[in-house]
Amino acid sequence: MSWVLVVFDTKFGATREIAEEIGRSLRGVGLPADVEAVTAGPDLSKYTAVVLGAPVFGGKLEPPLCDWVHKNLEKLENMPTAVFVVGASARDDTAETRAALDRVMDSALCGSECLGAGLPRGRFAGRIDADKLPAPMRFMMHMAKLPAGDWVDLDEVHAWAISIASRLI
Ligand SMILES: Cc1cc2nc3c(=O)[nH]c(=O)nc-3n(C[C@H](O)[C@H](O)[C@H](O)COP(=O)(O)O)c2cc1C
């Protein structure tokens, strides 16, 4: 019996919503799936496949996902694993933004060429609510010329989840 863990990092909640939609979509096609925050240190022992994702801040992922991948690398390399990344730059779906987001994700995958190999990567735009940002992040957003906006598209997330479902078995 296949059992999928969708593991995510988040600061402001958009990646949680995306991860929850992935879990719902997989369950909707009959694949048991749990959704857990990486900060809870999920245990992989009961799972046969993993979907992992995190948001980009300042051109990189935050340590929790990278640390968890590092800790579980051997197991992850021996089970189907799909990856997604959430970043405002995904709102313009060009070869350049795809490559930039892929580089960010690659660095979180500990140089492993197996993780997510052969499965389409998810690249989702997320959300920036300037009013909810602490001052240093508002400054960072300003310096990086990032716009505020809500680009979360759960239909797109659902379509991606369905596209990978059969590869997680
Ligand atoms: C201070 C700041 C820096 C960001 N840096 C980037 C970035 O370098 N590249 C990018 O594509 N998106 C960037 N974003 C957009 C976030 O990835 C996006 O808001 C995402 O939805 C956040 O996910 P979360 O709500 O799960 O925390 C940044 C957002 C903020 C507020």
Please, could you describe this protein's structure?
It is a single chain. The protein has helices spanning 14-28, 63-76, 95-108, 135-143, 154-165, and strands spanning 4-8, 33-37, 49-55, 81-86, 122-124, 127-128, 149-150. The protein starts with a strand and ends with a helix. Helix 1 links the parallel strand 1 (4-8) and strand 2. The strands form two sheets. It has a five-stranded parallel sheet with strand order 2-1-3-4-5, sandwiched between helices. Strands 6-7 form a two-stranded antiparallel ribbon. It has five helices and seven strands; from the N terminus they run βαββαβαββαβα. The protein has a single domain, classed as Flavodoxin domain (Rossmann fold). The structure holds flavin mononucleotide (FMN). Flavin mononucleotide (FMN) is lined by residues 10-15, 55-59, 86-89, 126-128, 133, 137, 140-141, 144, 146.
Heteromolecules bound: flavin mononucleotide
- The CATH superfamily bears the name Flavodoxin domain
Head-to-tail CA distance between termini: 8 Å
Largest sheet: 5 strands, parallel
The overall strand count is 7
Q: Please trace the helix and strand order, writing H or E for each element.
A: EHEEHEHEEHEH
What fraction, in percent, of the residue positions are helical? 25-40%
Principal-axis shape equals globular
Task: Return the average pLDDT rounded to an integer.
Answer: 94
- Class of secondary structure makeup: alpha/beta
Order of strands across the biggest sheet? Answer: 2-1-3-4-5
The CATH architecture comes to 3-Layer(aba) Sandwich
The CATH class label is Alpha Beta
- Measured by DSSP, the beta-strand proportion falls in 15-25%
CATH third-level topology: Rossmann fold
Contiguous low-pLDDT stretches (5 residues minimum) are: none
Q: Compute the number of helices.
A: 5
